[in-house]
Design a protein that fits this description.
heterodimer; A: Rossmann fold; OB fold (Dihydrolipoamide Acetyltransferase, E2P); 2 domains; 5-stranded mixed β-barrel; 23% helix; B: mainly alpha; MetI-like fold; two-stranded antiparallel sheet; 23 helices; 4 strands
Amino acid sequence: MAETQAGTLVLEEVSKVFSQRGGQGDVRAVDRVSLTIEPGEFVTLLGPSGCGKTTTLRLISGFEMPTSGRILLDGKDISHRPPNKRDMAMVFQSYALFPHMTVFNNIAYGLRVQHTPRHDVQQRVERVLELMGLSGMGNRRPHELSGGQQQRVALARSLVVEPRVLLFDEPLSNLDAKLRVQMRSEIRNLQRRLHITSVYVTHDQVEAMALSDRIVVMNNGQIEQIGTPEEIYRWPVSRFVADFIGRANFLSATVQTSREKEATVTLLGRTVTVSASALLPPGTIGTAVLRPEALLLEDDPTLEQVVVEQTMYLGSTVEYIVRLGEQRLIVVDADPRPGRVFREGATAGLSFEPETVHLLAEPAI
Amino acid sequence: MRTLTRNHRIAEFRRITQDPVLFVGLVIVVLFVIITVISPIYAMVEESLTEKGRELFERYLTSPVYQRIFRNTMEMGLLVAAIGTALGFVLAYVQVKVAVPFKRLIHFIALVPIVSPPFAVATAALLLFGRNGMITYDIFGVRYDIYGLDGLTLVLTLSYFPVAYLNLRGMIQALDPALDEAATNLGASKWRVFRTVTVPMLIPGIAGSFLLLFVEAIADLGNPLVLGGNYEVLATRIYVSIVGLYDTTAAAVLSVVLLVPSLLVFIVQRYWISRTSVVSITGKPSGTPQVINHPLVVWPLFAAVMAIVLLIVIIYGVIFAGAFTKILNVNNELTLDHFDFVINGYGSEAMKDTTQLSAIATPIAGVLGMLIAFLVARKKWTGRHALDFATMLGIAVPGTILGIGYLLVFNGPQQITLPVIGTVTVIPKLTGGRAVFGGAAAIVLVYIVRSVPAALRAGVAALSQIDPAIEEASVSLGADNFGTFRRITLPLIRPAFLSGLIYAFARSMTTISAIIFLTTPRTKIMTHQILNEVENGRYGNAFAYCVILIVIVLAAIGILAVAVGTTTGAEKTTIEGAA
């Protein structure tokens, strides 16, 4: 193992069980989660509501105690250390600004708790106000700020204490769409610049992909997959991941031959070599993941024929919902040439690009 | 799984002990509740189950006299609860939903009975509606006998309906106007909206007010003592058992009989009504409530409300007039003799003692209430529900019962024998002759115990309005639990703290049933003195006491509001201008 540096966060087989009221069984919110986050890394916990991502974050922050397993920060076991002694700072979904304090006092709060000398407090708060583009707003009250400004104050308040780990609990979900995109890139830039280990929770896959070095996809309290945004999008390990990250069509494919990470399959009447998440014996029927942009509609009667049920012209792209036998598929044409848009009710030939297809070991439904 | 849960509890516990301030606070609170609430009630129940107590139980159950007393109590309780809730509902509904004039005045007058001492109303009613009543005899020429059920119902209803009014007003305000709009939009008339939306939504509130008034009525001691006449209820019989017969066991047995319905109501309140409530208190109204302005609805309701208001005004008018005249309605010469008696004469001691003891109890009750609210609403630990329940018992049990419990537990020093050191007095004798501080300590404890529940509820309500993430943010930035409580939580629940303090002071100044057995010649309490004056027919003195008591309470409210502050600092100010 490499030497631990400031901000290495390790989760070892961490579980959290909530006992139900009235003793009706227990709920395993987090189930044997193991994870190593490197210093300065930005990791996102992603998943649907109830998947355990928020509980995992709260375990890291210390607001919940693990039922079993260990959490280590720079090699020290902090599993049962109270949250105020963990050297982490959390940015909350609701911002959780102290409503009875000015912006300045909100940001100075953590420094004053640490008994930082008055002069230093002044300097450091001023510096972070400037960094966050909040200069001159120190005397405002939180309710006098816009949503985006409140979010900046919340972030400033956490940054100013220079924590070893920054925690984010869906911090952008209360902002409108445009501001969300803007704050997203601000957070990313800031984090890269300050090089603070960050753990971010969201259910928004676009946000996760835009921000993260690595994404941890969670489901039912367990980790489904860990990987870079590209790895997760291109090589999902399960139907759940493929479906949750981006949009996906699932088609059955019959395996001809299978090697490590690769398989030759028969798909839509063609025999092609595609990437695969596991070794599969020949003859097995697996599930091919085809992203909407991997599918093409062509005016070619030799191809498998589909009926266009819906055409949505979105400007830079055209989206189709087409019917193939009993199955409905989404097709996105990213280059809709004039005169090449299929109308609703039309019949078209369905083609695909083999290099973007990925094979899962699960049988298609 | 079972061992897992146990480990979990141990871990929970360890987490609380990790924070010494929190842990010490928890230990103090739990010990306090055990000593001052649980042990007196337990002692009272234990006393009733002695051999003698069991014999008395049997005797009472079969005796027609006692059956009658029990029936009387229930009858009175149900009547007061029904009429008081109806009055409270009408006032609350009119206040929120009907376009009538003088709303603020109506609101203010409806709250007057809350800050006034008990049986001030009873005494005034006696002068107004009794055999020589200024209204019944002087105006209508009727020699009306007010003693008994009718008089008691009138007086208790007037004394306690403000509780129902406040309760229901809050709930009607919290009703989402969008519901009314939705129903109207679907074609319902206003009457239909009222019948099918408003009332069903308020049923938990109505039931809750009914039960609360029922318990208040059957626990009331002062009014039945003044106006009961031959109509005996449990509370008065308990009083007679102690004061007249010196029979603590009989009092304990009767107390248990009184305790059972009170506790049942408390439990139903807590576990049924609070669960079935469909009114969301935290949600902000999404529109402005529709106001009813149809003249055929407005004016009859206005007349009904004004009648209640007028009655209250007349009654308090009599109290003031009586305090400033020699003998009201007999010799109407103006005089300050009664005030002289209270302020400079015999009554000054009671006035000072009561104010001092209330002033001691008030901050303790306020802080304890907030601390327990914090421990119960914000900290996850097994036993927090039990602590909440036990604290609430302080007000859920009738005052007389608590008083008897104190007599039983604290009439001698509580000692434990330790191996080397020998016998150590843990709690000295607090009640009766030769008690420490002349019995004042026990009275202060009772004041606190009776006041903490209201502060606790106010605190819990305020805390539930504060996003827990705000406190977590503070902890996440390095503050410990105590620092977070001091810097973040306490400032944000300041208004609740203030209302807890005000309630504590007003309640302490006006309480009678819980302390009537605890006063000693060395410690005189105003409410007890008022009772003596009324029983001896010296109404002028009683009224002067009442007026002074009301003035002290109002002055204290002002002082507390200034000292504590009515705002959190988080209120939106329009002057500074938003960004």
